[in-house]
Amino acid sequence: MEVLNSFWPLVQQVLRLETATVATFVGQPGSGQLALLIVLTAGLSEAVGNSVVLFVNRVRPVRFLMTLLVASIIFTFTYFFWALTVFLVARLAFSASGSFPLVLQVIAFGFAPRVFGFLEFLPVLGRPLSALLRMWSLLAVLLLTAEVLALRPWQALATVGLGAVVLLTMQQTIGRPLLLLANWFRARAAGRELVLDRQGLRELLRSPVPKEEQR
């Protein structure tokens, strides 16, 4: 499988929800690299889509690129742990026979719509488009999980849903220090504590640019 040549055809097939065709990519030579390429592209694209926050925070260009890289890495770790929870739920609850590398590819291919996450940067339409892409991605993950792991629709829904709940629970409990560490890395990359709340962003937009930042 030529990874770069397979990238866009796979993205298009996922957008059309042609899960039976997409499932044929899973487990093929080079499919692991293709899955990683999709995840990294989606992570970077969504980071770019959210970069309006960095502009408002007046992050310098080099710091801007570093922050995008950190956001992509955090996205990749989140993907990995979600795939792990989906694998464990599928194996323990429904005795699915798929291996963890197989589940990693299933989740990654389902992320294909999110390679257009940069569209969130658009004014007015950005947020609705981002929400639509995430819903489309979730539907693709559900259908691919059912297809590849040979689960019934309700079993796939339970697997993906419980996997997401387990991930969120871990993030709010034992994963809390990791979230704080991720936010610390993001702030370090940006070179400042980022203002993320709407009121704070409005105030930043209204405030004059300090002289040292105009240079």
Task: Tell me about this structure.
The chain is mainly alpha-helical and 215 residues long. It has one domain (3-204). It contains eleven helices and no strands.
Helices and strands in order, then pairings?
Blueprint: H1 3-15, H2 19-23, H3 31-49, H4 52-56, H5 61-94, H6 100-110, H7 126-148, H8 153-172, H9 176-190, H10 198-206, H11 211-214
E-strand count: 0
How many domains, in number, for the residues? 1
Helix-strand sequence: HHHHHHHHHHH
Instruction: Quickly give the structural class.
Output: mainly alpha
Q: What helical percentage do the residues reach?
A: over 70%
Using only C-alpha atoms, the radius of gyration works out to 19 Å
Query: How far is the first residue's CA from the last residue's CA?
Result: 49 Å
Which regions are unreliable across 5 or more consecutive residues at pLDDT < 50?
none
Strand count, sense and barrel status of the largest sheet are:
none
Q: How confident is the prediction overall: mean pLDDT?
A: 79
The gross shape turns out to be: globular
Number of helices: 11
Strand content: under 5%
In brief, what are we looking at here?
By secondary structure, the chain is an all-alpha fold. It has helices at 3-15, 19-23, 31-49, 52-56, 61-94, 100-110, 126-148, 153-172, 176-190, 198-206, 211-214. It has one domain (3-204).
Keywords:
215 residues, globular, 11 helices, mainly alpha
